[in-house]
């Protein structure tokens, strides 16, 4: 049924079509209709008798109408198209003229850095071949370049507040008051014929007792349970029996790989453990000194029950069993020969992560932690050796971002997070000391990227207040990648390890890199040149101080 669209569109919801006095079906006449008044109107077709609100309407032109309406419609579309093209042309011309005026169009980036030639062999979650990608030319983002002067003011403010003040080292009695249980378990004297701090501890259990039943590492992590199942099976075979009592050998590490994250510590660990005289903890990164002893399992989950020191010592039982076998050998017993096996531990958080102190230690001085990790390590083992692997802090931060960011990763997103973190850091240093900000748990959790981890010299100076300089070996990832054999020999010499055969050395130095960057992260490309320039300005005074402390300008990480 056909109805004039001008009159029938106003019909009531009920079926009044047949009562519509203006148009009566196929006999409707445009000349006689009081509404149409002789004009050409588009008739309305409907499939049903009752026109509902959600009915499917189909508008068609009557075949008997003239072509004037058609040409009018085409002319309207053509005019709209022409008008749109004119507007787009004006916008493009305006953009081109504005860009040329400010010198921003088709001009090479002033922050371009040349490619860095290196051996693509390794990096912590990133290989050195990935590192080369960071120095390829990238497209300039004009808006970010415009932001540079205001961000430079923030960096200048931070630089003006930098003071490297020597911290006051706490005395031993203060440490005992803070951790009485730890001091009750670990003695102050160790076996004389072992390089490691080892001692015998009486075991009170019997053959039916599970020595690892309460170990928190085994309870909270399924992947560690296989290790502890093995330890249960061999536990009784390695007890030392004397005068109807049972003793187990306990050991702490002889050396620690303490940092930094995303600087190649995993690769160093994987190569070093291939040496026949080196043993590591059953778990690569226990994070006991920095997190687990405070009850931190995952940083996002808050606090749980604290891991006692016994749980940490259990991680070295496999190494202790091997050391005990050597100590009970005839050569050692009769001739007092020194055991050459050394134990290491490789938690990359040990150097820098003191975020938990504020929840456990009182007597803070102006927001600075009264006790640090190194205070306790030194109290138990003052002769410990420490290995630090560092990397250009600018590239370290980008690698850190790519590894830990969960979604929406991009060079632009990284830039925004860097700017936000710099603003937060500036707010802190305006009111507190540099050390207080570096160890500020609230600030570190608020910053979208971990700027503070790249402030190497702040942490190193605090470690040097406790340990002697000759107890600390500082390496650069860039050197390790370009000449791995040389850096590994430095490590062997530092740890007083025995010589290797050519086959053993080849196995250590020529094995593939560990923990390289994920392909999906590699596809994101390098950071923005402006971001790189901002970070170079921020880290420059810290790198300068680091180079002075180490008497090595390589730690300036200058590139031309």
Secondary-structure-derived class: alpha/beta
* Residue windows where pLDDT falls under 50 for at least 5 positions: 1-26, 35-73, 98-140
Question: What global shape is seen?
Answer: elongated
* Main sheet attributes: strand count, strand direction, barrel closure: 5 strands, parallel
Biggest sheet strand line-up? 8-9-7-10-11
The count of DSSP E runs of length 2 or more, i.e. the number of strands, is: 11
Mean of all residue-level pLDDT scores: 80
CATH topology name of the domain at 172-401 and 473-514: Rossmann fold
Instruction: Summarize the amount of helix as a percent range.
Output: 40-55%
Report the portion of residues in β strands: 5-15%
Distance between the termini: 82 Å
Give the CATH architecture of the domain at 172-401 and 473-514: 3-Layer(aba) Sandwich
Any idea of the CATH class of the domain at 172-401 and 473-514? Alpha Beta
Rg (C-alpha, Å): 36 Å
Q: What is the helix tally? A: 23
InterPro entries: CS_Sulfotransferase, P-loop_NTPase, Sulfotransferase_dom
Family: Belongs to the sulfotransferase 1 family.
GO molecular function: N-acetylgalactosamine 4-sulfate 6-O-sulfotransferase activity
Protein name: Sulfotransferase
Notes on the protein architecture:
The protein has 23 helices and eleven strands. The chain is of the alpha/beta class and 560 residues long. The protein has a domain at 172-401 and 473-514: 3-Layer(aba) Sandwich (Rossmann fold). It has a five-stranded parallel sheet. A three-stranded antiparallel sheet has the order 1-2-3. A three-stranded antiparallel sheet has the order 4-6-5.
């Amino acid at each position: 049924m056909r109805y004039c669209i001008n009159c029938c569109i106003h019909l009531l919801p009920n079926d009044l079509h047949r009562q519509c006095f203006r148009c009566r079906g196929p006999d409707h006449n445009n000349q006689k209709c009081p509404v149409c008044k002789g004009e050409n109107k588009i008739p309305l077709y409907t499939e049903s008798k009752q026109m509902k609100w959600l009915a499917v309407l189909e508008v068609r032109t009557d075949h008997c109408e003239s072509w004037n309406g058609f040409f009018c419609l085409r002319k309207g579309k053509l005019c709209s198209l022409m008008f749109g093209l004119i507007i787009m042309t004006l916008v493009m011309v305006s953009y081109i003229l504005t860009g040329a005026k400010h010198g921003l169009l088709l001009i090479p980036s002033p922050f371009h850095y040349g490619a860095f030639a290196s051996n693509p062999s390794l990096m912590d979650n990133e290989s050195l071949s990935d590192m080369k990608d960071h120095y390829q030319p990238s497209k300039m983002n004009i808006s970010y370049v415009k932001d540079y002067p205001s961000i430079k003011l923030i960096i200048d403010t931070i630089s003006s507040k930098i003071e490297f003040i020597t911290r006051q080292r706490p005395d031993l009695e203060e440490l005992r008051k803070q951790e009485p249980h730890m001091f009750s378990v670990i003695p102050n004297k160790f076996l004389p014929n072992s390089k490691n701090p080892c001692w015998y501890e009486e075991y009170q259990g019997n053959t039916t007792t599970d020595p690892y039943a309460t170990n928190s590492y085994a309870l909270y992590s399924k992947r560690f349970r296989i290790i502890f199942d093995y330890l249960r099976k061999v536990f009784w075979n390695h007890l030392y029996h004397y005068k109807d009592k049972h003793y187990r050998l306990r050991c702490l590490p002889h050396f620690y790989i303490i940092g930094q994250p995303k600087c190649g510590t995993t690769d160093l660990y994987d190569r070093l453990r291939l040496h026949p005289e080196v043993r590591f903890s059953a778990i690569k990164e226990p994070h006991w000194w920095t997190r687990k002893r405070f009850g931190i399992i995952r940083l996002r989950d808050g606090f749980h029950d604290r891991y006692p020191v016994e749980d940490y010592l259990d991680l070295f039982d496999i190494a202790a069993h091997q050391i005990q076998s050597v100590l009970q050998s005839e050569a050692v017993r009769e001739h007092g020969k020194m055991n050459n096996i050394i134990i290491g531990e490789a938690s990359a958080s040990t150097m820098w992560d003191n975020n938990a102190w504020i929840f456990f230690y009182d007597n803070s001085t102006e927001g600075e932690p009264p006790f640090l990790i190194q205070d306790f390590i030194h109290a138990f083992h003052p002769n410990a050796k420490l290995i630090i692997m560092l990397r250009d802090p600018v590239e370290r931060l980008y690698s850190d971002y790519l590894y830990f960011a969960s979604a929406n990763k991009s060079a632009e997103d990284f830039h925004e997070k860097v700017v936000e973190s710099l603003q937060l850091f500036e707010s802190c240093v305006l009111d507190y000391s540099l050390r207080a900000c570096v160890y500020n748990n609230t600030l570190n959790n608020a910053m979208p990227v971990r700027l503070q981890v790249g402030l190497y010299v702040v942490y190193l100076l605090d470690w040097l207040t406790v340990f002697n300089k000759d107890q600390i070996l500082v390496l650069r990832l860039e050197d390790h990648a370009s000449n791995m054999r040389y850096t590994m020999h430095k490590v062997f010499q530092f740890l007083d390890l025995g010589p290797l055969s050519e086959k053993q050395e080849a196995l250590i130095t020529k094995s593939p890199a560990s923990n390289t960057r994920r392909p999906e992260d590699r596809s994101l490309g390098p950071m923005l040149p402006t971001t790189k320039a901002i970070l170079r300005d921020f880290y420059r005074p810290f790198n300068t101080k680091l180079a002075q402390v180490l008497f090595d300008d390589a730690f300036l990480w200058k590139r031309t």
